[in-house]
Every structure is written in C-alpha cells, then in structure tokens.
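Worked example

This section walks through a single chain of length 115. The input is the sequence exactly as stored; nothing has been trimmed or padded.
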Amino acid sequence: MLIRPIQTEKAYREQTKRSYMFVVPEDTSKQAIAQQITDQYNVTVTSVHTILRKGKATKFSRGKHAYPGTTYRQDKKIAYVTLKDGDSIKVFDEEATDQKASTSTKTKSDKGGDK
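Given that input, the structure is written out below as tokens.
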C-alpha cells in the first residue's frame, strides 16, 4: 500500500495541531492507514479522518472543428492522521526544511568565487 505525505501550506498548518495529511488508495480502511503510518514512521496514531476529493472537470478538444468534451481528473482519498502528544513525523519537520534552505544558500554563495 502506497501512502505518500502531502507537503503543502495547508498540510504545514495542520501540523501545528499534530495532524498530518496523506494521499492513500481509495479502498484503504482507517485501521489499515493507522497501521501503515505506525509501521512506517514509528509513531502512535490517535485518530484517522478520511475525505474523498472528487476530480475536477477539465475541457478538451480533438481538433479545430471537433466538439469539445469534458473529462474528469482522478479522485483522491486524503487521510488526516492525528498523532499522540510528543510524536512527530520527520518528513514534515520544519528543521529539515530549514537545513535544506541553509545548505542551498551556502552552495550559492560558494559558487560566487573570488574575483
């Protein structure tokens, strides 16, 4: 089962409430999601809420005179996982993103060289 974290601004806001967002397969149960998160990240899950996001409608056309049609993007199941106090997932840690930012600024300044 493939569970991947969502790394958006909304996901980082949810992190302050000890809640993390993941995209999960549509046929996955809440118990299976909790077990997978526990196994993958070594944390204690207190609750799981799921939402099914419907795919957006998109227009398409097959040429200049073809009748335009409408198709839909794929539906997604989003899981909001709340963890026990004191637990966190390192994928979402602000420290990890701060370290990446500091290393990228160091490499940019190092590339300048002496003139």
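What to look for: The mean pLDDT is 82.
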